[in-house]
Write a structure and sequence with these properties.
Layout (H helix, E strand, L loop, with lengths): L5 H14 L7 H8 L3 H17 L3 E6 L5 E6 L3 H15 L14 H4 L2 H15 L6 E5 L4 H11 L3 E4 L10 E7 L6 E7 L8 E9 L3 H11 L4 E11 L13 E10 L4 E6 L10
Parallel strand pairs: 3-4, 3-7, 7-8, 8-9
Antiparallel strand pairs: 1-2, 5-6, 9-10
């Protein structure tokens, strides 16, 4: 690569790091890429590190030694996450979103890449210090959220199906009880989709009593996998603890109140923002 001016090099290095989160990049890669001395590259990285941390973009970790390098870890401060979630809550409080059964129409929000990107960065910040091999969700509405989270963690996505697909080969299927309507449903996962004993982060768009999440947790036992966390965008409020099928989870928003007659919807920040929470 031809030698660049420092200003251009800083822009290109920043883009390179943002595109490769959680990847240890040796300094020699940048030195060779820009035909520059390692000392100059180190100075550039110091500038980028300061900007990342000041602007709340993430952290730049430097590892010394022959096998060392630099690694970008996306981060979202709780203050930034709260501002983001408050904005999402205002959107979800629109009366026309109320559906029969107290559900909310969320597909348009889940279809906005900019919002999903920031939600994904928030989940990546919450769970980023845990050993995670894949992000798992169940089809279909949780897929954008799963991909956004996985992009910031730089890991694959595994999608649990409602029905087996002939194109995915042999699969494992289980029955589970929905926490909302108490009906029995089926979920399935291709055997080739997940390695045995993998570390898994489960994410979903909405949780009432946690039946779907519990189903995924039970399904993962068939793969001898370890659940490293459960993250949900919105949880339903007013659910008794005895009814919850998942004990340990992180929610970003909560459906606090719904009045079908007046169509009033009240949202609130989820348990991630509760005082004393340290995740």
């Amino acid at each position: 690569m031809k030698k660049l001016k420092r200003s251009a090099r800083l822009v290109e290095m920043t883009q390179y790091l943002l595109a490769k989160p959680h990847v240890l990049v040796p300094l020699t890669v940048f030195a060779d890429r820009y035909a520059s001395a390692k000392s100059s590259i180190s100075e550039d990285l110091t500038i980028i590190k300061e900007v990342f941390e000041t602007e709340g973009i993430g952290e730049l970790h430097t590892l010394a030694g022959a096998a060392g390098g630099v690694k970008f870890v996306p981060k979202m401060s709780r203050e930034g996450a709260l501002a983001l979630v408050n904005g999402v809550c205002r959107l979800l409080e629109q009366p026309e979103r109320l559906l029969p059964g107290g559900y909310l129409y969320m597909s348009d929000i889940l279809g906005q890449p900019a919002i999903m990107n920031e939600i994904g960065r928030t989940f990546a910040s919450v769970f980023g210090d845990r050993p995670i091999d894949v992000v798992m969700t169940v089809e279909t509405k949780g897929i954008p959220l799963a991909y956004a989270t996985a992009a910031h963690l730089n890991i694959p996505v595994v999608i649990v199906r409602r029905d087996p697909k002939v194109t995915e080969g042999s699969s494992v299927s289980i029955n589970y009880v929905s926490g909302s309507n108490k009906r029995i449903h089926t979920m399935t996962l291709a055997r080739r989709a997940l390695k045995s004993k993998a570390n898994v982060l489960i994410v979903d768009d909405f949780m009432r009593a946690g039946g779907t999440a519990r189903g995924m947790i039970d399904l993962l036992q068939e793969f001898e996998a370890t659940v490293q966390g459960v993250g949900v965008l919105v949880e339903a409020g007013g659910v008794d603890e005895e009814e919850l099928l998942v004990d340990d989870y992180v929610s970003l928003a909560r459906l606090a109140h719904v009045d079908p007659k007046t169509r009033e919807i009240r949202m609130a920040p989820g348990n991630y923002f509760e005082e004393g929470t340290n995740l």
